[in-house]
Amino acid sequence: MSKRNEQKREERSAYLFLAPYLILFLAFIVIPVGFAMMLSFTDFDSVNFPAWVGLKNYITLFTSDAVFMQYVVPNTLKFSLIAGPLGYILSFIMAWMLAQIPKRSRTVLALILYSPSMTSGVAMTVIWKVLFNGDQTGYLNSLLLNWGLIREPVQWLQSTEWLMPVMILVTLWSSMGVGFLSMLAGILNINPELYEAGYIDGVKNRFQEIVHITIPSLKPQMLFGAVMAVVNTFQAGAIGVTLAGSNPTPQYAGQLVLNHIEDYGFLRYEMGYASAISVVLLIFIAVCSKGVFKLFGDSD
After folding, report:
1. DSSP 8-state code for residue 251
2. Whole-model pTM?
3. Does residue 44 fall inside a structural domain?
4. Tally of domains in the chain
5. I want to staple 132 with a disulfide (CB 3.0 to 4.6 A). Which of 18, 117, 153, 156 is the partner?
6. To the nearest whole percent, how much of the chain has pLDDT over 90?
């Protein structure tokens, strides 16, 4: 009987420790997502009571919203397929390189690489807009003019040709986030005896060492980093608007899904339609995350 009481006490203690997380998860994740799903079937202007419209918002989104189908979807896919994988690969490469140097230097460099992911919003407005300023005082234009590579200043942040590449560059600059730190920690915790055994079994160089030992030993960290890369890439929205200074961006060149949601939700106050767009984004992120789990998760 005492064992049962002790077991129940342990279970209550476990639930007590989990309670803060469960409450916050319900309050800030489950309930808002549930409300968004319900609002996606309504016509809601943030003032009047929501009016039920069924699937009208979704039908409009995929059949009548030319901006969404012609600009937002292609831009989001292009941005995600380039910035996501490149940022993920770059995070792994930088983590592996840092793991090869002494601890003191590694700590300083890791902080330097991680800091842009925390200050990217401020840095974009202060550093990147100055760097890509469209007149001759912009650092990049000034250099190219002095070198004779261009004859007149380029409107980097207002150009339909250059806005997306600049957005990808800024995203890669700030891509060393928690996924990068988890990979670095994972590499540092790999048992050195595995490498010794690998060289005995025929591993001949660093590339084979990475492919046959490092990456297989980092599956949990690689999975976490991949999921974070998917989520962060599809959640990116402020980059194009902040750089261009307007929503929508010039000729929708940098318009992503989150910009479309903000446009309808907070500029036009069509909350029902904005909720429908957010639900579509949520489903797309869930599908991509499931694919990542299949790729990096355990096959057992």
Report:
1. G
2. 0.83
3. no
4. 1
5. 156
6. 25
Contacts of 288 by beta carbon, 8 Å cutoff, 6+ apart: 230, 234
Q: Using one digit for the tens of pLDDT, what is the confidence trace for 137-170?
A: 788 888 888 888 888 888 888 888 899 999 898 8
State the CB neighbour count (10 A cutoff) for residue 285. 18
Q: Which two tokens stand for residue 69?
A: 């189908």
Under 8 Å between Cβ of 93 and 187: no
Domain that holds residue 78: 66-131+158-296
Q: What pLDDT was estimated at residue 279?
A: 93
Distance CA 98, CA 187 (A): 10
Q: Rounded to whole angstroms, what are the CA distances from 261 to 118, 207, 254? A: 24, 44, 14
- Does residue 5 lie in a domain region? no
- Give the tokens for residue 62: 């995929």
Residues lower than pLDDT 50 in the chain: 300
Domain containing residue 186: CATH number: 1.10.3720.10
Counting Cβ atoms within 10 Å, is residue 23 exposed (0-12), middle (13-18) or buried (19+)?
exposed
Identify which of 215, 156, 173, 181 has the alpha carbon closest to the alpha carbon of residue 83: 173
Q: What pLDDT does 152 receive? A: 87
Helices and strands: H and E segment counts in the chain? 17, 2
* Alpha helix ranges (H) inside 162-235: 163-173, 178-188, 192-200, 206-209, 215-217, 219-234
Q: How far apart are CA 36 and CA 233, in angstroms?
A: 21
Domain presence at residue 151: no
Q: What is the pLDDT of residue 299?
A: 53
In a domain, residue 214? The reply is: yes
